[in-house]
Amino acid sequence: MTFSEQIPNLIAHYGYVAIFCVIALESAGIPLPGETILVTASIYAGTAHGLNIYGIIGAAAAGAIFGDNIGFWVGREIGLHLLIKHGHYIKLDEARLKLGQYLFKKHGGKIVFFGRFVAVLRAFAALLAGANGFEPKRFFLFNAAGGIVWATLFGTLGYVFGAEAHKIAGPFGFTMLIVALIALFFGWRFYKSHEGRLMQEAEMALPGPLADRL
């Protein structure tokens, strides 16, 4: 039996705690089905009335925010150290690391907020934000907003539409992934065409060795 197949039992036995823990672990970087447990619990609340939808949304939002902050801290305290020390093995030299931080400084809020709605980014956006030196206060603001909107949207979806919600949530998540991939492709094309200028801007915005910023 897969983990996803065990979700109804987890909800039945542990309720809000299961919702909080699974979503928190996924948000911290462990690939678990956070969206699935949220929608399934919401369907359960709308049909069996064993759980309160407001409690489900609250547990999901709290788990998302808590887990993302753990992922952010890990990325900030460990990720950047590793990238500075070993990044050259994957062609991430000082200039490219600075460029990553510069781009996160300009667009990190959008990545953190909308990353909550994309399956792959949901598990790694916080780690990337931390490793790229995103400002903690801004991260908390965009992370909390993304977590609350995501939990409210998918929780309400499951509660209102019942079993049909899985048919809606799946295509929605897939569409968001496609949109993210398209945005990544055009972003990469733009980056390759303007790499020199962007690196100069990054150096001006972040002068001096990155190690001094640890």
Shape by Cα distribution: elongated
Number of contiguous helices: 9
Provide the β-strand percentage band. Answer: under 5%
> What are the secondary-structure elements, in order, as H or E?
HHHHHHHHH
Stretches where pLDDT falls below 50 for ≥5 residues? none
Output the radius of gyration.
19 Å
Structural class: mainly alpha
What is the arithmetic mean of pLDDT? 80
> How is the biggest beta sheet arranged?
none
Please tell me about this protein's structure.
- By secondary structure, the chain is mostly helical.
- The protein contains nine helices and no strands.
- The chain has helices spanning 3-14, 16-27, 34-47, 53-86, 94-115, 119-131, 136-161, 164-193, 195-205.
- α1 (3-14) crosses α3 (34-47), α2 packs antiparallel against α3 and α5 runs parallel beside α7.
- It is elongated and about 60 Å long.
- It starts with a helix and ends in a 9-residue tail after the last helix.
- The model has no long low-confidence stretch (mean pLDDT 80).
